């Protein structure tokens, strides 16, 4: 018994080695059957046709955007599962047969082996073999996704495995080969590239634009539809000067899209084999859009724009010479906003025909242009000449008012040759100067003008006409002074040369002020106002009214001077005597030989004495009144005489 036990122990390694060989042989046959089943499945035309059909439909419909990617994946998986089921049935049948063969071979073995241990080992090997076919390649869903997305799918130990080997402990191991991983990735890239090339045979590349519109991955039909939609919302913006713009809508001019086949021409230009370039670069194709529009409606829209109304347009102005700060300068031309509508309409029609969305009116040349610009050589030459001879400026003062004679007027008085150069000609210049001074005197002289005051006696307005009072320019002297200023290029401010002056400046004839003598010849009474205050008033006797050459004339005058102790004489006779001689203490002339004086020989004043017994023309005053007036009045005081 003891020897038997020992013998059995010595035989145990042999029996284990025999069993291992049996199991490996069985496993090899099972794997052979499995490979045959896989090949059988691959050689089955019907299964292969179903898989190819599903894959083609998935690629076309997915990329064509008629079904979602998920539906494509499900189609592929379904087809693969049908093929897998048939394959699994074949494998299972072979495994069952193999199991039966293995059991028969093991049972025939003469070496005693425990049944449970052997069967358990064989079952494990068979289960491992059954699992291998499903882990050797990625699922259908993963393959389709990789073909569409062109992205490498990570390969794991469960997807690509080496044949099983055993270690010293008998445990199974799986080993990944780098070459197999790289091959699988390359296969996926090739499939994705091929799918992309097929897709872009009838699609525009990614990054494609037509007339600025994004047409990426669009078919010809879809891109053409997008262009049509874009045309339906067409409008063109007109940019005017002064940052103004107006918009004309395509709907207002009957704008309609007409397909021209330009999208097809664009697709012909792209090579599907180069579709990957579209992922990294963008390209814009400019194509002509064929469209119809109503030219009459377009003109009506243009005519209706407010900025094209004549009342709203500013005419252009030429560059010109101006006199600024006592020198001649060139002022820039003014462009204005006047538009030639015919020119603009022609440009607008062309822009609409080519589907332009913006039109610069400035670039169309429709704006009217000034004829002389600041760069004109003749204009520049004139400026230089005038600056050399006509830069005098005379500023006349008339009280608070001013009037300026400057180079802009003086330049027209000078003489020039054919080339525009200055030619000295004093006579011609003086003729212009005298004409100017005459005009100045006509406008500024106040001597002899009518003046209106309020009668102290009646409180009513009284108009006083004639007389020698007021400003009067000495025209001869002023002309000489102007010529001298021009020759010396003077810049001066002064009064004109006067032959006579009024008390104050006043452009409406109100040059009297508030100091004056009111002489009411009709009522034979006078009032003396000094700075608005009545100083004195008195009756008087004026010239004999019924004798015309003795009548005191009406009008406005100014006191010439005042003297004491004078002898007033009449007309000198042939014998050397005078018509009369009247000594006076106070003598105040205002109109030639007519003036105020005392008349000690008279005993009464006022009333109607002047009608028949008046003076020779002077205003006779009581001695006391003559003295008072003499003490308060000054030369130049206005004297207003009226009936």
Question: Would you kindly provide a written description of the structure presented here, covering whatever features stand out?
Answer:
Pathway: Cell wall biogenesis; peptidoglycan biosynthesis. The chain crosses the membrane at residues 180-200. Residues 1-49, 69-142 are annotated as: Disordered. This is L,D-transpeptidase family protein. The active site is at 597 (proton donor/acceptor), 618 (nucleophile). With 643 residues, this protein is of the alpha+beta class. The protein has 4 domains: 2-199, no CATH class; 208-310, no CATH class; 390-500, Ubiquitin-like (UB roll) (Roll), CATH 3.10.20.800; 516-642, Beta Barrel (L,D-transpeptidase catalytic domain-like), CATH 2.40.440.10. It has 17 helices and 30 strands. The strands form 11 sheets. Strands 24-23-22-30-25 form a 5-stranded mixed β-sheet, with helices on one face. The chain has a 4-stranded mixed β-sheet with strand order 26-27-28-29, with helices on one face. The N and C termini lie far apart (188 Å). Mean pLDDT is 80; it is low at 1-14, 40-44, 57-70 and 105-170.
Number of helices: 17
Overall, the morphology is rod-shaped
Q: Helix/strand/pairing class, anyone? A: alpha+beta
Mean pLDDT, all residues: 80
Main β-sheet, spatial strand arrangement: 24-23-22-30-25
Distance between the termini: 188 Å
Radius of gyration: 63 Å
Total individual domains: 4
**How many strand elements?**
30
Strand content: 15-25%
Unreliable runs, pLDDT <50, ≥5 residues? 1-14, 40-44, 57-70, 105-170
Pathway: Cell wall biogenesis; peptidoglycan biosynthesis
Keywords: Cell shape, Cell wall biogenesis/degradation, Membrane, Peptidoglycan synthesis, Transferase, Transmembrane, Transmembrane helix
InterPro entries: LD-transpeptidase, LD_TPept-like_central_sf, LD_TPept_cat_dom, Transpep_catalytic_dom, YoaR-like_PG-bd
Active site: 597, 618
């Amino acid at each position: 018994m003891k020897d038997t036990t020992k013998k059995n122990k010595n035989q145990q390694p042999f029996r284990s080695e025999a069993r291992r060989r049996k199991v490996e042989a069985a496993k090899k046959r099972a794997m052979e059957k499995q490979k045959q089943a896989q090949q059988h499945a691959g050689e089955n035309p019907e299964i292969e046709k179903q898989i190819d059909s599903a894959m083609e439909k998935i690629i076309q419909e997915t990329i064509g955007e008629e079904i979602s990617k998920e539906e494509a994946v499900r189609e592929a998986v379904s087809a693969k599962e049908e093929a897998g089921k048939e394959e699994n049935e074949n494998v299972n049948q072979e495994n069952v047969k193999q199991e039966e063969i293995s059991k028969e071979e093991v049972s025939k073995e003469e070496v005693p082996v425990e049944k449970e241990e052997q069967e358990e080992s064989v079952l494990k090997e068979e289960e491992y073999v059954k699992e291998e076919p499903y882990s050797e390649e990625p699922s259908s869903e993963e393959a389709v996704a990789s073909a569409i997305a062109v992205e490498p799918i990570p390969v794991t130990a469960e997807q690509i495995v080496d044949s099983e080997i055993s270690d010293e402990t008998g445990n199974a191991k799986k080993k990944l080969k780098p070459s197999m991983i790289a091959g699988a990735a390359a296969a996926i890239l090739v499939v994705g590239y091929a799918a992309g090339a097929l897709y872009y045979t009838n699609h525009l590349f990614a990054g494609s634009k037509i007339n600025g519109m994004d047409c990426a991955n669009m078919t010809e039909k879809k891109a053409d539809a997008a262009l049509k939609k874009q045309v339906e919302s067409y409008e063109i913006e007109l940019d005017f000067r002064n940052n103004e713009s107006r918009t004309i809508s395509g709907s207002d001019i009957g704008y309609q899209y007409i397909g021209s086949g330009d999208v097809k021409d664009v697709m012909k230009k792209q090579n599907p084999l180069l579709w990957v370039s579209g992922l990294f670069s963008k390209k814009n194709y400019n194509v002509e859009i064929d469209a119809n529009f109503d030219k009459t409606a377009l003109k009506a829209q243009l005519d209706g724009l407010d900025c094209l109304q004549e009342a709203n347009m500013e005419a252009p102005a030429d560059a010109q010479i101006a006199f600024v700060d006592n020198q001649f300068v060139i002022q820039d031309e003014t462009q204005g906003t006047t538009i030639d509508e015919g020119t603009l309409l022609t440009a607008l029609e062309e822009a609409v025909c080519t589907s332009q969305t913006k039109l610069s009116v400035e670039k169309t040349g429709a704006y009217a242009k000034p004829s002389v610009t600041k760069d004109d050589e003749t204009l520049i030459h004139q400026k230089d000449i005038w600056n050399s001879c006509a830069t005098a400026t005379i500023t006349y003062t008339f009280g608070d008012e001013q009037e300026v004679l400057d180079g802009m007027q003086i330049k027209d008085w000078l003489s020039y040759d054919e080339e525009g150069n200055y030619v000295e000609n004093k006579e011609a210049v003086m003729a212009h100067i005298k004409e100017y001074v005459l005009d100045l005197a006509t406008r500024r002289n106040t001597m002899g003008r009518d003046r209106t005051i309020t009668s102290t006696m009646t409180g009513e307005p009284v108009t006083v006409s004639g007389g020698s009072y007021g400003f009067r320019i000495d025209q001869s002297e002023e002309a000489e002074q102007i010529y001298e200023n021009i020759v010396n290029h003077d810049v001066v401010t002064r009064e004109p040369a006067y032959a006579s002056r009024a008390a104050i400046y006043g452009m409406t004839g109100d040059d009297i002020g508030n100091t004056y003598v009111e002489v009411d010849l009709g009522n034979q009474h006078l009032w003396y106002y000094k700075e608005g205050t009545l100083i004195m008033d008195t009756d008087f006797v004026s010239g004999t009214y019924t004798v015309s050459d003795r009548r005191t004339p009406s009008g406005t005058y100014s006191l010439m001077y005042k003297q004491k102790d004078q002898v007033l004489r009449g007309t000198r006779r042939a014998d050397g005597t005078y018509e009369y001689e009247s000594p006076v203490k106070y003598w105040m002339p205002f109109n030639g030989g007519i003036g105020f004086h005392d008349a000690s020989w008279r005993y009464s004043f006022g009333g109607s004495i002047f009608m028949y017994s008046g003076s020779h023309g002077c205003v006779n005053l009581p001695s006391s009144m003559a003295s008072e007036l003499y003490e308060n009045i000054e030369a130049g005081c206005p004297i207003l005489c009226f009936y």
